[in-house]
């Protein structure tokens, strides 16, 4: 059995494959043979030490899909051979096998294959949270989505477009611009050569947007705040460019704006609600509302290479490790 062990915070080179032993599941646990592991920017924050939420040495990763190999005492609802996925703040996903509490598992339907499940659980559930659990985006509204060609960005664009919103997306180059348009962006801004705030103001005739979905953080926060319409909402759900500096809430009063900083794990703590959200996501994928693009695939031992590509903005869609 293999796992990626992080022993020191640092660059992608700190992600090293090692032999591990995974024993029998304890009470309430199952042992999984993992097939596909999802890669997220959260993993890079953990690896670098920006998030010190994984005790070292440890196995990073928060999502995967796989097959139940064995069940521990007291496990109900799952059996050997079941196909499952999970999202967990307990880490441990970068491995060929693992033990995990059965209460954390999400049952996979036959309509969702392992590659799709491994690529979409964090991203897809995040999108559903952003669009339905906070301030729901309404038909006829306009939203701005940063990193529109990324894994979350693509799904978010597709779902927002399906809801009847006008989507403005930012991307880093022309190839990604074409991808964003294909996914439903009515307007695309290449931020490397255009001031996105000025372009959003021009596109909206000075009115601004009803919602901004910002996973970038430090580099986009001020511009995102500036382009909000009256009573508009800025949702910051990531910080790929670094954390946002200290901010005075009184600044929101100028246009009665609101600022959200949601964390997915808080919305999926309850097992029943987590499965309901997952089932709605599976239905959206099966119905063609959301299409999951796997832009890059690496073997388990290539986790460092996967991080390097992701952080260099060299990938689009989801990135996975195939076990």
Structural class: alpha/beta
Helix content range: 25-40%
Main beta sheet strand tally, sense and closure: 7 strands, mixed
Query: In the CATH hierarchy, what is the superfamily of the largest domain?
Result: Medium-chain alcohol dehydrogenases, catalytic domain
Fraction in beta strands: 25-35%
Distance between the termini: 11 Å
The string of secondary-structure elements, in order, is: EEEHEEEEHEHEHEHEHEEHHEHE
Q: What is the name of the CATH topology of the largest domain? A: Quinone Oxidoreductase, Chain A, domain 1
Low-confidence stretches are: none
In CATH terms, what is the architecture of the largest domain? Alpha-Beta Complex
Radius of gyration: 20 Å
Q: How many structural domains in the coordinates?
A: 2
Helix count, DSSP H or I runs of 4 or more residues: 9
Beta-strand segment tally: 15
Outline: globular
Global mean pLDDT: 95
Describe the protein's topology.
Blueprint: E1 2-6, E2 15-19, E3 29-39, H1 41-48, E4 63-71, E5 83-87, E6 97-101, E7 105-107, H2 114-133, E8 142-145, H3 151-162, E9 166-171, H4 174-182, E10 187-190, H5 196-203, E11 209-214, H6 221-226, E12 228-236, E13 258-260, H7 264-267, H8 271-286, E14 294-299, H9 303-311, E15 318-322
Parallel strand pairs: 8-9, 8-11, 9-10, 11-12, 12-13, 14-15
Antiparallel strand pairs: 1-2, 3-4, 3-6, 3-15, 4-5, 5-7
């Amino acid at each position: 059995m293999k796992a990626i062990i992080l022993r020191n915070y640092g660059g992608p080179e700190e992600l090293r494959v090692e032999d591990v032993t995974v024993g029998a599941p304890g009470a309430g646990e199952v042992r999984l043979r993992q097939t596909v592991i999802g890669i997220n920017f959260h993993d890079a924050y953990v690896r670098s030490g920006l998030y010190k939420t994984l005790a070292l040495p440890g196995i990073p990763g928060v999502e995967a899909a796989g097959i139940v190999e064995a069940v521990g005492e007291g496990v109900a609802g799952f059996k050997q051979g079941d196909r499952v996925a999970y999202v967990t703040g307990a880490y441990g996903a970068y491995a060929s096998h693992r033990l995990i509490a059965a209460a954390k598992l999400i049952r996979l339907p036959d309509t969702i294959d392992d590659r799709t499940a491994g690529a979409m659980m964090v991203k897809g559930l995040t999108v559903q949270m952003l669009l339905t659990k906070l301030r729901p985006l309404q038909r006829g509204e306009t939203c701005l989505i940063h990193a529109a060609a990324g894994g979350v960005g693509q799904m978010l664009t597709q779902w927002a477009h399906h809801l009847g919103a006008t989507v403005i997306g930012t991307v880093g180059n022309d190839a990604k611009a074409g991808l964003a348009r294909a996914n439903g962006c009515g307007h695309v801004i290449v931020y490397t050569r255009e001031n996105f705030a000025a372009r959003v103001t021009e596109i909206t005739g000075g009115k601004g947007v009803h919602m901004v979905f910002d996973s970038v953080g430090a580099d986009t926060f001020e511009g995102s705040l500036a382009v909000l319409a009256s009573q508009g909402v800025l949702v910051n759900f990531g910080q790929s460019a670094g954390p946002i500096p200290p901010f005075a809430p009184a600044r929101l009063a100028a246009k009665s704006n609101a600022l959200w900083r949601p964390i997915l794990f808080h919305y999926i703590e309850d097992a029943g609600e987590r499965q309901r959200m997952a089932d709605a996501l599976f239905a959206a994928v099966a119905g063609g509302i959301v299409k999951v693009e796997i832009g890059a695939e690496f073997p388990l031992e290539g986790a460092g290479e996967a991080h390097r590509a992701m952080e260099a903005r060299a990938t689009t869609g989801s990135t996975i490790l195939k076990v």
